[in-house]
Design a protein that fits this description.
By secondary structure, the protein is mainly beta. It is built from no helices and eleven strands.
Length: 117
């Protein structure tokens, strides 16, 4: 079972930037996609961004388009989420997910992002 370790969260003022990293314990090349989800208190978990591992095709939530960029490094077995122009509403616990074609996905433990106004 692959393990995912997220890092890079923290506290930042509105307009600032953070870069989240998600390192897998084994090759991500066997995964269909890597994704970042987030969950704010009282809200449902939502998809932020997803990247297909083989092609690099990306998808974003409308709320983060133009501000966030997802990428992956198949050699380092790491997925990234570059977050720019952060807003208070981006405050949430961010989770990395390894997505398999079988549907047996693996979730990381999450990293907290707090944006103050």
């Amino acid at each position: 079972q692959v393990q995912l370790v997220e890092s890079g969260g923290g506290s930042v003022q509105a307009g600032g930037s953070l870069r989240l990293s998600c390192t897998a314990s084994e090759s991500i090349s066997v995964m269909y996609a890597m994704a970042w989800y987030r969950q704010a208190p009282g809200n449902q978990r939502e998809l932020v961004a997803r990247i297909t591992v083989s092609s690099g095709r990306t998808n974003y939530a409308d709320s983060v388009k133009g501000r966030f960029t997802i990428s992956r490094d198949n050699v380092e077995n790491t997925a990234y989420l570059q977050m720019n122009s952060l807003k208070p509403e981006d405050t949430a616990l961010y989770y990395c997910v390894a997505i398999r074609t079988t549907g047996a996905n693996t979730w990381g433990q999450g990293t907290q992002v707090t944006v103050s106004s």
